[in-house]
Amino acid sequence: MKEKALYFLATAMAVALATVSIAAQSSPPAKPAGTAQSKPAGTQAKPAGSAAAKPTAPSTTYDKALLSPATLKAQAPAEFDVKFVTTKGEFTMHVTRSWAPVGADRFYNLVKHHYFDGCAFFRVISGFVAQFGISPYPVVAKAWDNAKIKDDPVVHHNTPGTVVYAAEQAKNTRTTQLFINFGDNTRSLDPQGFAPFGEVTGSGMDVVKQFYGGYGGDLDQEAITNGGAAYIKSKYPQMDSIKTATIVAPAAPAKPAQ
After folding, report:
1. DSSP-derived secondary structure for the chain
2. Contact by Cβ (8 Å): 225, 132
3. How far is CA 101 from CA 47, 75, 105, 115, 155, in A?
4. What pTM does this model have?
5. Each residue of 86-138: pLDDT tens digit?
6. Any idea what the Cα angle at residue 203 is, between residues 198 and 204, rounded to 5°?
């Protein structure tokens, strides 16, 4: 599986960092990945010192519908809310379909079938983004590897708290990986076509900003994809994760029996 990334170059990152106030960090920034895998964008904050909660794998098996991405084509409501329960607490994400209809529909179908349950926040870059969206079940992650959707035009800016799809260094390559903007990345991400489709509401960013970021930005996403939750638990025990992600408004259908 090719890793999805924020694919702008170091010069664009310099512009982004110039517009964002980033807390002082205790160690040098991590280098961008130099392989064919994804390029993380930004500098990496080192561990704050206290141990973070260990990732929690889903308590039940995955929804078998997730093995057939082509069948999950329901249109999302004009607006809806998703409640995330994570290892650091809860936050709510509000989606506005008109911002990015294609992306919102994909997200709606993923949440509806509990794709994100157990997903880890595998790239947390202080002052920049928190990225997630690789299924803890390798068979599910691989099923979505080539389930790409077309790009949406950028209607809303990449402001703090907005939620956006990660992508490869090409057009129309969005699949399941998302990131939450920590800072105002308007100048660096808007011109590159990163289209927000929702945003974290209320005090939810207080939770998001607690996610552990001590593993750097150059993790081997292929290994995460192939190893799933077991690999993360053994290799990155302090990595935070999503326990459940559920549509709460409008009301979501009951989770299918396993």
Report:
1. -PPPB----HHHHHHHHHTS-----SSPPPPPP-SSS----S--PPP-SSPPPPP---SSPPPGGGG-GGG--PPPPSEEEEEEEETTEEEEEEEEGGG-HHHHHHHHHHHHTTTTTT-BEEEEETTTEEEE---SSHHHHHHTTT--BPPPP--S---TTEEEE-B-SSSS-B-S-EEEESS--HHHHGGGT----EEE-TTHHHHHTTS--TT-S---HHHHHHHHHHHHHHH-TT--BEEEEEEEETTPPPPPP-
2. no
3. 37, 9, 6, 19, 11
4. 0.78
5. 999 999 999 999 999 999 999 999 999 999 999 999 999 999 999 999 999 99
6. 50
